[in-house]
Amino acid sequence: MATSIELAHASASATLAPKPSVTEVVARFVRTKPLGAAGGVIILGMLFLAVFAQMLAPYDPYVGDYGLQFSRPSAEHWFGTDEFGRDVMSRIMYGARIALFVGFTASLIGCTIGALLGVISAYWGGRVDLLLERLMDILLAFPQLILALAIASILGPAVQNVVIAISIPVIPRVARVVRSAALSVKENVYVEAVQALGATRRRVILQHIIPNVAAPYIIMLTAQLGAAILAEAALSYLGLGAAEPTPSWGLMLSGSAPSYAEKAPWIALFPGIAISLGVFGFNLFGDSLRDALDPKLKG
Amino acid sequence: MAAVTRRYHALFIVLALAVVAASVVTAVHAADTPRRGGILLAVIGADPPSLDPHQESTFATMQLVAPLYSTLIQIDPYSYPKIIGDVASEWKISPDALTYTFKIRPGIKFHDGSPLTAADVKATYDKLIFPPKETRSVRKGAYLAVASIDAPDASTVVFKLKHPSASLLENFASPWNVIYPKKYLDKDPNYFMKNVVGSGPFKFKSYTPGASFEGERNPDYFVKDRPYLNGYKFFISTETSVRAAAVRSGRAYIEFRDLPSAEVDAIKKQLGDKVVVQHTPMTGQFGIAINNTVKPFTDERVRKALTLGLDRYTGGRVLFGLTGLKDVGGLLRPGTEFAMPEADLQKLPGFGKDMEKNRAEAKKLLAEAGYPHGFKVVLKNRNVKLPYQDFAVFAIQEWRKIGIEAEHRPLETAAWFADGRDSGNFELIIAPTVEASDDPDVFLRRYTTGDTQNWGRFTDPVVDDLFSRQSRALDPAERRKVILQLQKTVLEHAYYMPGLWWSRNVVHWAKVKNYVAPPNHYANQKLQDVWLSED
Questions:
Q1: Full residue range of the structural domain in which residue B498 is found
Q2: Per-residue pLDDT averaged across A202-212, rounded?
Q3: Cβ neighbours of B511 (radius 10 Å)
Q4: Kind plus residue range of the DSSP H or E element containing B411
């Protein structure tokens, strides 16, 4: 009898606090985290540019007008042209594709592998945990960009290699965070209960642990996005990322830009602004999302 | 009184003029008198794949090690292409042009203290002309006429020829043919890929890959009172802007290869008379090797389409300010004795000036070959920006106009050589033809079957025969006729795709004296006469 009363009480509570709609969640986020919302707008803008670059870009980013080498910003070429007469604005628009592709794929791959390893490490414990953690220690011993540089220089300059190079250093960082979250989840009574009821390890991990470590995973993912975009720019700047004539922001900033910095500063200026804005947007959004999702930071 | 004053005035003026004249003479004398000491600081754009010039063909090897070695004869540092002696004091060619006899200077010592004799010269040229299986000689094709080498005594070397060779003396003067001590070659013909034992004006001091290379004065150098410098040091950086900044800041006094005009102008603007710019033509062009053994490039129509799609004339205008790439030409430098006349050149695929017509023809050929919508291809390249990568960007832009989408893949110098020259692991690759002289033998041997520099791996018996005939032709008019036919054959079949002939800006601080930039970045790198007017 007591049990049925408790259940009825729980049901009543659920009716009293209905699940908020997506619009309500977004509105509350905008209201409470205006900076995060501004970051979100920048990200949406980048996404829009990346998806519709073909329609929005006024010129082919790969083919230049040889008669217009080093043209100043003008009504025809808002951001000017580069040493081959290519429209800088069109190249920045297409560059958003590379930045987002590398940012999203590298973060997603790195964070997902890291999260899986973290959960496995926490749940199995013992030798598996010891082995994985020492492996993570080795990877953590190298600064993130130095490790990415080493991997990129082994693999050679190409966009897909940049994704691999950036995602590997992400793995141990995410694995550590997710492991600690999974360790606390593992100790919960309901996990012990399902184990006692005979649930398989796979079931416990997939249905009970992973859903409960989703918050730190999402936070790490958004935090790594901005870092990945910056790392892509850095690798391309150092000649280990995308190769010319790919319209990559980092590559546009390196390549010929330093040689022509005095003659045509717009070649370096606008890609620089694009990188700063993109990274700034992801960092603002990531920070706000962490504040919103992390229960320790609430209230 | 006034007369006395006038006399004093006149005397004063005469004395003042005398003092000025004396100081000018002293200053000129001081400026012209070589100063001893100092370290020449230079900057270079690549790491060498190995230290053995016999096996390499990059400035990265040559500029670093040339000051450490001697050659048999050499191109005059002050008067290209005049030939003067180096370890050979004199030489004689027999009337039938089948025997070349060289006399070796006495008293020359290698850096390990052992004497340099005719036996070392013979061993060096045996390695170059008849290389053992385990080693590579990238220029052996220039010495096909040589039948045997003898060293009858310690100071005489005799080359016996199978047939006369029009270019042989020029090829003996190649800066790549450095003399090695026989005893090391006997132990390991690849010993000098990683070690240095020369007889040049400087001795090896240190090498840190990716960072620096140093040489120090050889006190036992066989040329009296040389070198003037205490040593030299190269800093290594593949970044053009870093090299330019090194010169600009005085961290390096010279960049021997090339800097883009924009950087040169900025350096000149900032440093004014403190720097000197030597602009020279180049005995070299940047083109593209097509792997003739892989599809779709086994099809001549596809190769022709590629060359038709390249607007060389516009390229010369666009790339000159960026890279120094300038002149449209065939397989030999425009304006030289054996170069193809412009009128003849324009009749060949890719050299006509009507680009609309060329592109239409290219698309038609691609459609006929089964690629009506073009195709995707990988263009490999060296990760050296100037002018490799700029030239590649231009070519990629041009090919997009005929539907060919090329993915650009820059590689480290060693990997670029390994894929291009050694293994043929490429479809298209940027492959310049830069040599130490305009000699037709060194330029054209790369189009013959099996030559180590034939990166495109094509075989045409007609080209082989024409090369052999031109090499033997001692009459320049007859030789020219055959050379023009050879160039026409290679370009008509589009076995290789020449791009543009190069020119270069050598920028150095004015305190670097006595360096005359030759028309390439291989010759005159021994630095024996170079001196610094101040540290």
A1: 281-503
A2: 85
A3: 18
A4: strand B405-411
Q: What's B178's domain CATH number?
A: 3.90.76.10
* Cβ count within 10 A of residue B140: 18
A65 touches chain B (CB under 8 A): no
Residue of B nearest to A262 (CA): B266
Asked if B390 and A256 come within 8 Å (Cβ–Cβ), the reply is: yes
Report the share of chain B in percent with pLDDT over 90. 87
Nearest CA to B48 out of B382, B325, B285, B281 is that of: B382
Same domain as B407, residue B373: yes
pLDDT tens readout for residues B128-172: 999 999 999 988 888 999 999 999 999 999 999 999 999 999 999
Domain match, B69 and B171 both: yes
Helix residue ranges, H only, A125-265? 126-140, 144-155, 159-186, 189-196, 201-203, 214-237, 249-253
Q: How far apart are CA A258 and CA A211, in angstroms?
A: 48
CA of B313 vs chain A CAs: smallest distance (Å): 12
In this complex, do B397 and A255 lie within 8 Å of one another by their Cβ atoms?
no
B378 touches chain A (CB under 8 A): no
Cα distance between residue B22 and residue B1, in whole Å: 31
**Separation in Å, CA of A104 to nearest CA in chain B:** 23
Minimal Cβ distance to A157: which of B240, B393, B410: B410
Assess whether B496 and B518 both reside in one domain: no
Contact A259 B262 (CB under 8 A): yes
Largest Cα span, chain B: 106
Closest CA–CA distance from residue A240 to any residue of chain B (Å): 9
Do both B401 and B528 map to the same domain? no
Q: How many helices (H) and strands (E) does chain A have?
A: 13, 0
pLDDT tens-place string over residues B494-524: 999 999 999 999 999 999 999 999 999 999 9
Looking at the fold, whether B487 and B451 belong to one and the same domain comes out as yes
Q: Verify that B437 and B348 share a domain, yes or no.
A: yes
Residue B351 has pLDDT above 90, yes or no: yes
CATH number at residue B303: 3.10.105.10
**Closest Cβ opposite residue B262 in set A62, A63, A260:** A260
Counting DSSP H helices and E strands in chain B, the numbers are 16, 20
Q: Residues 137 to 166 of A: which have CB under 8 A from any B CB? A: 156-158
Q: Which of A87, A83, A80, A86 is nearest to A64 (CA)?
A: A86
Distance from CA of A100 to the nearest CA of B (A): 20
The ipTM (two decimal places) reads 0.77
Task: Please answer yes or no on whether B383 and A245 come within 8 Å at the CB atom.
Answer: no
Tell me the per-residue pLDDT of B474-498, one tens digit each, with 9 for 90 and over: 999 999 999 999 999 999 999 999 9
Contact B397 A245 (CB under 8 A): yes
A16-48 confidence digits (pLDDT tens): 567 778 888 888 888 888 998 999 999 999 999
Shortest Cα distance, chain B CAs vs residue A66, angstroms: 6
Is B410 domain-assigned?
Answer: yes
The residue of chain A with its CA nearest to that of B241 is A259
Interface of B with A in 391-450 (CB under 8 A): 392-394, 396-397, 400-401, 407-411, 415
Q: Residue B370: inside a domain, yes or no?
A: yes
> Nearest-CA residue of chain A relative to B315?
A66
Same-domain status, B296 and B400: yes
In angstroms, the CA A77 to CA A89 distance is 7
Domain assignment present for B235: no
- The pLDDT, as a whole number, for residue A189 is 86
Same-domain pairing of B187 and B286: no
**How many domains does the structure of chain B reveal?**
2
Interface of A with B in 226-245 (CB under 8 A): 239, 243-245
Q: Are B207 and B213 in contact (CB under 8 A)?
A: yes
Judge whether A282 and A276 are in contact, CB under 8 Å.
Answer: no
In a domain, B51, yes or no: yes
